[in-house]
Write a structure and sequence with these properties.
Layout: E1 30-33, H1 39-50, E2 57-59, E3 64-68, E4 72-73, E5 76-78, H2 85-88, H3 91-96, E6 118-124, E7 130-133, E8 142-148, E9 152-157, E10 171-175, E11 180-184, H4 186-189, E12 192-195, E13 200-201, E14 226-227, E15 231-237, E16 241-243, H5 245-252
Parallel strand pairs: 5-16
Antiparallel strand pairs: 1-11, 2-3, 3-6, 4-5, 6-15, 7-12, 8-11, 8-15, 9-10, 9-12, 13-14
Bound molecules: 2-oxoglutaric acid.
Pfam families: 2OG-FeII_Oxy_2
InterPro entries: AlkB-like, AlkB-like_sf, ALKBH6, Oxoglu/Fe-dep_dioxygenase_dom
Family: Belongs to the alkB family.
Amino acid sequence: MDSPNAPPPPQINIPASLEHSRIAALPPAAYYIADFISEEEERAILQKVETAPKARWRRLTHRRLQTWPSDLVKNTLLDSQPLPDWLSQPIITRLLSIPLSDSEPHIFTPSPHGQPNHVLINEYPPNAGIMPHKDGSAYYPVVCTVSLGSSLCLNLYKSKEDGALDPEPVWRILQEPRSLLITTGELYDKYLHGIDPIPVDVNLSEQSIANWDLLRSPSLFKGGRNERQMRISLTYRDVLKVSKLGSKLGAMFKRP
Ligand SMILES: O=C(O)CCC(=O)C(=O)O
């Protein structure tokens, strides 16, 4: 667990406030921290993801998904179990240790539960993506994504006048392994996000990537290309509605 007086683990680089990590090219607000967790922490989390009971995985057409602590029922989290320790430490503790501004201690201060209570784990082999979508009304409008294993581009889209999706992304964010991306505000409500199902991200440059100046290793992408490997993402959110009934049902039908 991170404590305010403990020296940070080697290899991580946490800003004094989120403002230092703001992606200036995007509408308010998005933040990118390249070295949010260490290589050792990444390995430990990957090991937990890979050794989770098989029943935890839901297989979709091109990717697999775990939902912690449980699926939502009618946009409600059945409050059966808290998030496991390996999803809380160090990620949530560290996230909540970063001030948003002088007046707000952290990004989840105004959210109903003051911290994320739900995590989706997506596994993307090279060639897999996720269709452009919005995250909807079940969550407080802050999404925190920790990337593990490989880099890829998240695309941001807008709808055309007639409501149809404009297929050309308005912005692209490059997410490196061990990074944290936070999106909120207009990026939650107004724009869609998605990942192209391609093996190689191309045309990567200072001009085309919104967070280029915040990357850990822009030189790795100097040729404009990113060959994808297996990438795991952990997406942290605060589900607005939590049902106490869940704790009673949870005791009767315990998940693996
Ligand atoms: O894996 C990602 O970075 C994006 C996941 C996503 O779009 C979602 O969980 O809604």
